[in-house]
Specification:
It contains 13 helices and 11 strands. It is of the alpha+beta class. α2 runs antiparallel to α3.
Length: 508
């Protein structure tokens, strides 16, 4: 802002200097044309002077051009039209020619200057259109409030070589407190009381306006259809700002629309997240209350029977078994909730080591002995299968969830198959069942949280398969699901694993 006043003085001085320059040019031209001051050639001087006036009109304002036209006519009359060094003209044709010269010189200067002004105006409009076009194009590709602000600042700086400052609201129709600028920018010349006034009244203020025109900066409101994003502040000199209110209004409207779009998008996203969170809370609450009630009711019923009645040893054993099964189910539900929480928070970590896949399968099969005894578990593991590098505890939960899922959806006495292989640096494990499979439209949602096939008739929170996916991805692997042609679903797990160097392994 310190350079604006000197620039104004420089502009004023340049205008005054144009008048002196006009006098100097006409005087010099007159001096150079002195050899042509003869009765036979003085007409040529008029054409030379007309050409000089037209040339000056291309570069000078209308005032200096009118002065040059007048001086050229006087100089031609005084120095070149006989009788010399007087303003008296003897011949009628010379009087007519002098009058024509004077009129032509004036019209020539005025029209040439007008054409130049029109050219400048067209060029300004072209520059304005270019600025609006670039701004609109860049804003259309910007995503997010930060990016919109960055694009607007960059385009403004490119075209006008000065900074654009944003004071935006916080989403609750309150401006950011003084001293806290968007993107960390701050300027001491900004009047925050004026910012508040512009924001509340939605009217421009400051320099070049009717409200506090003595201010160093110009304050424009960013207004939208549904909300006002904030205020934009800038400092331009008068020659750049000009009388272009329509242009500036259009320019900042484009920025306002882009910011409003992002504000409304963020508000819609927050509303959607809140709505989804509310739905998720209700769904989770209903599922947990339902799924926990069954094992808890079983434990309480069996415990009450054991405590209040005398029953046979066989019945006591059955009741204890029911308590154990219900406790196991309850523990599995809690583990799934804890695992999902750890996966979402990123706190789950993989501690890989070399393991025999047979040990993993045997451990999970033992834990699911009661569930698997109603089915025919078929395991296909090649003898030459190498050791696999994985987290045994996490993979135990993966296989547990997949086998439990197969037991829940497969008919009694049907086959459940486990097939392990090693191909091209990847350990592959396939778990398939003989159940109804998944409806084709649900396959993309199988690994979503709390997803359960409608009318499946099975319990659970719908977390098991999403936990499977999270753990496998933590191993840098992939898991896919598909339906078998003969019926049933098949889950395919692939985990990158190199073949171990047996000499480097420490076997316990």
């Amino acid at each position: 802002m310190k350079g604006i006043k000197p620039l104004m003085n420089l502009t004023l001085n340049s205008r005054i200097s144009q008048y002196f320059l006009a006098v100097f040019i006409i005087g010099l031209t007159t001096l150079l044309c002195t050899p042509l001051s003869s009765p036979q050639s003085y007409h040529i001087v008029s054409f030379i002077l007309l050409f000089v006036v037209a040339l000056m009109a291309v570069f000078m304002g209308i005032g200096p051009v009118l002065l040059a036209s007048t001086l050229s006519a006087i100089a031609w009359n005084y120095f070149f039209i006989p009788p010399y060094h007087t303003f008296h003209i003897e011949k009628t044709e010379d009087k007519f020619m002098f009058g024509s010269f004077f009129i032509i010189a004036l019209l020539n200067g005025v029209l040439t200057n007008s054409i130049r002004r029109q050219e400048i105006l067209v060029r300004e409009r072209e520059d304005q259109s270019s600025a609006l076009f670039q701004l609109t194009g860049e804003l259309s590709k910007a995503s997010g409030i930060d990016k919109v602000v960055e694009v607007a600042k960059d385009v403004f700086r490119k075209h006008y070589d000065t900074d654009l400052y944003f004071i935006l609201q916080d989403g609750n129709n309150n401006l950011i407190t003084p001293g806290q600028f968007w993107n960390g920018n701050s300027v001491s010349n900004i009047d925050f009381s004026l910012v508040e006034r512009v924001f509340s009244n939605s009217r421009k203020a400051g320099r070049f306006t009717d409200v506090k025109p003595e201010a160093l900066m110009t304050y424009y409101p960013l207004t939208g259809m549904r909300l006002n994003p904030g205020v934009v502040v800038f400092g331009l000199d008068k020659s750049v700002y000009g009388k272009k209110d329509v242009f500036w209004s259009t320019y900042f409207t484009q920025i306002s629309n882009a910011l409003e779009r992002e504000f409304l998008g963020e508000m819609a996203l927050k509303a959607r997240i809140l709505d989804e969170s509310d739905k998720l809370y209700k769904t989770l609450f209903n599922l947990i209350s339902h799924e926990f009630r069954i094992p808890i009711a079983t434990i309480m019923g069996a415990s009450d029977t054991l405590l209040t009645s005398h029953t046979s040893e066989r019945n006591r054993e059955e009741l204890n078994n029911e308590i154990f099964k219900a406790s196991t189910r309850l523990n599995h539900l809690i583990e799934n909730l804890l695992n999902m929480s750890r996966l979402e928070s990123g706190k789950i970590s993989v501690h890989s080591d070399w393991y025999d896949i047979n040990d993993l399968i045997n451990k999970v099969s033992q834990n699911l002995m009661e569930e698997l005894k109603q089915f025919n578990l078929i395991t296909i593991i090649p003898d030459e299968l190498p050791l696999v590098k994985l987290d045994f505890g996490l993979m135990e939960q993966v296989l547990y969830n997949l086998l439990l899922n197969a037991c829940q959806y497969s008919p009694v006495s049907s086959d459940i198959r486990l097939k392990a292989s090693y191909e091209q640096g990847n350990f592959t494990l396939k778990v398939s069942d003989s159940g109804p499979g998944f409806p084709d439209e649900t396959l993309p949602k199988v690994f979503d949280k709390f997803f359960r096939v409608e009318d499946s008739g099975t319990g659970g929170l719908g977390l098991g398969l999403s936990i499977v996916k999270g753990i496998i991805e933590a191993h840098k692997g992939t898991v896919k699901v598909g339906n078998l042609a003969e019926g049933g679903a098949e889950f395919t797990i692939m985990i990158p694993s190199e073949i171990p160097e047996m000499n480097g392994l420490k076997l316990e």
